[in-house]
Write a structure and sequence with these properties.
Layout: H1 9-19, E1 26-27, H2 28-35, H3 39-51, E2 55-60, E3 69-74, H4 76-103
Helix pairs in contact: 1-4, 2-3
Length: 104
């Protein structure tokens, strides 16, 4: 059974961070710093997004004593999903503005 809940604000922030440069591979640590999430919140979000086909994942081999690192970037479906989210937010914002103007 698939749930159709809207994404959490944290998930939206992760998606927008990835959408800023959708072709670039990003490290989890890099994303965590940018969106101000701890690993216990970020990595479950990344796993869910990857499971839904919105993210590509890859491993970067370790170099010297550095362990391998997981990399993430948006898929085409992920880019479309972010575009729809952005359009929906823009529409909601415009509707709120119209309501405020009509109430004034």
């Amino acid at each position: 059974m698939q749930r159709n809940r809207p994404p959490s604000p944290q998930t939206v922030n992760v998606l927008r961070a990835l959408a800023a440069d959708p072709a670039r591979w990003r490290y989890g640590y890099d994303l965590a710093s940018e969106v101000h999430l701890k690993s216990g919140s970020l990595y479950p979000i990344l796993v869910r997004l990857a499971d839904r086909g919105l993210l590509e994942t890859s491993w970067e081999p370790g170099v010297g004593s550095r362990p391998p690192r997981h990399l993430y970037r948006l898929t085409g479906a992920g880019r479309e999903f972010v575009a729809v989210l952005t359009a929906e937010q823009r529409d909601r914002s415009a509707a709120r503005s119209r309501r405020r103007l009509s109430e004034a």
